[in-house]
Amino acid sequence: GKGCIVAGEVTAAGLACDGSNYWNKSWSHAAAFVCSPPLREGEMNNLVDATADGSIDIVSSHHAAYTTQQKSLGLSSFLTIPAGVTGLEERLVVLWQKAVQPGKMTRSQFVAATSATAAKLLNIYPQKGCIAVGSDADIVIWDPAATRTITKEEHLSKCDFNIFEGMEVTGGPEYVIFRGKMVKDQDVFRPMTGYGQYQPLPPFAPHMYHKIQEKNEKEKIEPVARSDEDMATTNGIENIPPPTPEENVCPTNQHRSSVDLNSHPQTPDFDEVSNSPSRSSVRVRAPPGGSSSGVFW
Q: Are the CB atoms for 295 and 281 separated by under 8 Å?
């Protein structure tokens, strides 16, 4: 590879759904899985393993839910199917079920992939992604023993289809605190309209740019310092011939001509033609501009 510094991201859909759903006989079923990036067939387990070993940095939702009626805008062409699936509610439980529950990922890695690393990439850590004095009071209290089955009837989205339909998961949020307010108390969800705030994102996140600086320092080309002794040659510099001077080639003078009009061998002098006794006139049969029957004296 080229050694570029990159950050990997995967969606909850990529961890739990397979691209084979695009070949389902039901058009509405296949269209419900259309998203960006698209799902790949046979890559689900590979993505889970890459997330568990740290090759992929964060797990996002890419939530963009559409109803079957909205998806039908692309009934005549798949290019016009609205790209988007559910994932906001299922992101944490899917990762826990796929990676933490089987023992592929630790709980600390789970927190990093779902919260801390994202905050570092967006350069808002430790305001976000960290439980500490001065950080935002956004806290999830997790119950690792909670169990449920994901269905479209129980999800909070207005979408009439859930790509994780029928998936049994273990582990889930028991309490959710947002800016110090309880928004989920066990099975009671209390959304608050207009409670969010604009979050500015400073540029040049150290999480990435420190790695870039370290890479540049390692690849920095250092000059070789040489003393007079190091510069000495085996036979001495007195035997080195001087450089050959380059020949000064001047451009051709376009104002000079190599043709001598006074020394043409087959052209008689003008005086000889005008004084010739044998010809008193010259008939021009084909002058420039066309033929002529006139006589020029």
A: yes
Which residues are paired to 141 by β-bridges? Answer: 175
CB neighbours of 265 closer than 8 A, spacing ≥ 6? none
3-class DSSP assignment, residue 55: coil
More confident position, 116 or 222: 116
Over range 266-279, report the average pLDDT.
Answer: 56
Question: pLDDT tens for residues 208-221?
Answer: 999 999 999 988 99
Determine the number of helices (DSSP H) and then strands (DSSP E) in the chain.
10, 6
Distances, alpha carbon 95 to alpha carbons 42, 58, 122, 175, in Å: 18, 11, 21, 18
The DSSP secondary-structure symbol of 238 reads G
Helix intervals (H) in the chain: 12-16, 27-32, 44-52, 68-71, 91-95, 107-111, 117-121, 206-218, 228-231, 270-274
pLDDT tens digits, 154-182: 999 999 999 999 999 999 999 999 989 99
Question: 11 - beta bridge partners?
Answer: 60
